[in-house]
Amino acid sequence: MTVLFINAAFRENSRTNALAQKYLSTLTDDIETVNLGEEDIQPLQKASLEKYCKDSHSHEFSDDMYRYAKQYAKADEIVIAAPFWNFGLPAVLHAYLELVCTQGLTFDLNKAGEYYSLCQAKKLVLILTAGGNVPENDCAISFIRTLCKEFWKIDDVRYYYADGIDLVGAYVNSKLEKVVKQYGNS
């Protein structure tokens, strides 16, 4: 089995990445890593969007921009590490997911207009940290859950987060350890 680790927590001494590494250390599978801080990922803009639409329609996926979707489709488990920024995901992770959501590579439509998955993954784990508090119905977790449900048909979506870790008086280490203990319970 192959685990795809998507690291959007690339700051030096990132607490999010540290939590993700502890989760990954519990796995025995091969791990492929995409460090988004080292990739040249651009959001789809006019020219790239036109190419993307044309290629998806013709199922022509030889361009290098499709390497992320191809890798994603082959993974057995997906692990995403991301800081919670401005009530959502970092822009580079969102741009990466735009490229992953490629019709004809990670999902497609049947004649009735219903999505079906072209991905192997049966499980996705999202690991977040937030300096402030994560609201009950936050955008980041909801966005990932919707992609998993609608496009990739991944039913086993788990998220672990430590929030409030930058608040005055926060017991940061105990908040992080609480998350790590959850890994063993799921």
Automatic annotation (TrEMBL):
Record-given protein name: Flavodoxin-like protein
Domain Flavodoxin-like fold positions: 1-184
